[in-house]
Amino acid sequence: MTNQDDQFKKVISHAKEYGYVFQSSEIYDGLSAVYDYAQNGVELKKNIRDYWWKAMVQMHDNIVGIDAAIFMHPTTWKASGHVDAFNDPLIDNKDSKKRYRADVLVEDYVGKLDAKIEKEVKKAEKRFGDAFDKDQFLATNPRVLKYKEEGEAILKRLGKSLENENLADVKALIEELDIADPLTGSKNWTDVKQFNLMFGTKLGASADSAMDLYLRPETAQGIFVNFLNVQKTGRMKIPFGIAQTGKAFRNEIVARQFIFRMREFEQMEMQFFIKPGTQQEWFDYWKETRYKWHQSLGMGADNYRFHDHEKLAHYADAATDIEFKFPFGFKELEGIHSRTDFDLKQHEEFSGKKLQYFDHEENRSYVPYVLETSIGLDRMFLAVFSNSLVEEELENNTTRTVLKIPAVLAPTKAAVLPLVKKDGLPDIAKKIVDDLKWDFNVDYDEKDAVGRRYRRQDAVGTPFCITVDHDTLDDNTVTIRHRDSMEQKRVKISALRDIIKKEVDVKEWLMKM
Ligand code: ATP
User: For residues 90 and 194, what is the distance between their CA atoms, to the nearest angstrom?
Assistant: First the structure.
């Protein structure tokens, strides 16, 4: 097992052990690629959603939210192109009977080349010490350049073949690269086939009158079909945006990466309606704005990178991904797409209704262009959770497991702990909880020695522990301990609210954008 696998396993078991994520219907042995959020997970998920909503809707005068239904008229999905084109190329291994996404097999091969580059960098770093210039090394080292060129050529060919629906060439590529089934090593592959990712269901009681429906594979279409309703009732002027968070469903072929790739997941999407011709400017704007949102959480600039698309979806004229360094390498976290007027025009054609905006300044009507930002809430959850989980060596040769979730997102902001379960200390502690819970999610914990309680709160990611002891009885002060630094300070009970607020307040964090 590699270090990466090891770290990923730790993430998954920690998520279960500390009440963040459970397998769905676990007592029935689970359902593949479906997960439930537990008592702490639901809070973290909500805090991420709120952090996004505040930044996107509340802080932008020209962005409003909606909450469209998961079921939509089935023609929606004909118009959007999903019925005909929402496919993934799949390939089966004849020996192991395992199914894979052909493009992912190739991309993982390229990922291994990236890992080799990283190894070269690490080696050189060691060799050259302080004199090491990473950028220069990446630009000139022959071995690095060879890996880079090889990777780029492979991705280019893959992109072209997928674009031209040349599935035979995708298979040829897999064979030429000698790619084996990652689980068994077998190279006995079937041909590559297309597979539609939408889940179907039926609306209506009797079999004859039932209508075939799909569970939405993205939330975006609920925004497009409501574009004119929102624009008119909200008297919105272009440029303006409509944001939405909600469930989406995809019958993913490969689903072995915990909450990274789920069959039921949640998206946070924003469609920004703009004047045709201004798409490049807005593409750049949203690329930068979304990048800054990620950076505001302080999870390390090195953990993010952009990946511009070679292969564009049927609706896009430019696209980039914000990738994050997950435990299994850099993968897409968020997509930013310039969707042109494709969707609105398609809905005009299929519905026979006009979806145009009258521009008073230009005195003409047009179908707006659209810039989309689309992030998976579950993927963001995994990014935050996996990046926060660390094993720390302490001075006295012990280790502690700590979940350094950005305080603004932490499920519980503070735990209040009476030093002992007597002498009136629990009553004071409970009174502090009662007072603070108007403003924050707080926890009360009196079981076990205080050191063990600190460790438990560290592992669950609580930014503050507040300890009530015998001195509290005399002077109304408590000890406040900081999760990350483990620093402890004596403060007045009356000062607690402000101390906590300063560290967990959304404003303090978003101001860093
Ligand atoms: P991928 O290439 O990883 O399948 P995608 O390019 O199909 O993703 P989009 O259609 O752009 O993804 O969806 C927008 C966002 O929704 C993604 O950036 C991702 O964060 C999230 N997302 C997509 N599919 C899933 C899934 N199966 N499980 C969890 N999140 C997902």
Answer: 6
Q: Which residues line ligand 1 (CB under 6 A)?
A: 218, 250, 252, 261-262, 265, 267, 332-335, 374-376, 378-379
Whether the CB-CB separation of 394 and 400 falls below 8 Å is answered with yes
For residue 217, which atom of ligand 1 is closest to its CA?
10
Per-residue HEC secondary structure of 165-221 comes to: CCHHHHHHHHHHCCCCCCCCCCCCECCCEEEECCCEEEECCCCCCCEEEEECCCCHH
Mean pLDDT, range 254-267, rounded to an integer: 91
3-state secondary structure of 374: strand
Q: How far apart, in whole angstroms, are the C-alpha atoms of residue 292 and residue 154? A: 31
Host H or E run for residue 152: helix 142-163
* Angle, alpha carbons 88-161-370 (nearest 5°): 65
User: What residue owns the CA closest to ligand 1's atom 18?
Assistant: 334
Helix, strand, or coil here: 401? strand
Q: What is the pLDDT of residues 445-478, one digit of tens each?
A: 999 999 999 999 999 999 999 999 999 999 999 9
**Residues facing residue 248 across a β-bridge:** 265
SS3 (DSSP) at 481:
strand
- Residues 6 or more apart whose CB falls under 8 angstroms from that of 115 comprise 329
pTM score of the predicted model: 0.89
